[in-house]
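Lest this sound abstract, we let one protein speak, letters for residues, whole numbers for local backbone shapes, and leave readers to judge:
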Amino acid sequence: MLVRAAAAVGVLERWADGYSERYAYRAACGTVIPKAQVCSIRSGHPTQSASTPQIASLGLARSRRLDLIPGFARRARIALRTADLPASEIELYMFRRGYEARGAEPLIEAVTRAHLATFSAAPPEPPAPTCSMWRDVNSFNELGIPAITYGPRSERHAFRKSLTIDSLYNAAVVYATHDARSVQPR
């Protein structure tokens, strides 16, 4: 099963390559690029190398567009069946829907004014990875409480994420006041 699972990883990764392109869309917050990927594999045991693993489990992760209904497991099953690698079971074990902010214009306008006052330029559009991931503000937006994300983002998406002191200071200046002309960015 481990060898079949390895073949399935290749099939699923090729299928996932086109997923982002097929389902990308432009939202009010920026460009949302959903992602699909194999995120884990479990089979066998390293201390029992003489036994053949009878079960292999692949973990698949997917972020999705807000306007699509979940159908990921069905589409993954079709991709595997097409490659003659039928999956005995594919199940959805976690689902977190994304939400776009409604009624957040006053927040957006206040942050835009503060950013303009601090940097003499409009805030840049958020990078697609920021718009594409599930974020804590989804919980507020789901309940109809307008929420937005603003602030520095680590340029590294790795085990150790880091923000510069200057980026944190500048974000604090923007958050502290909409008329930040008396405090200069660093």
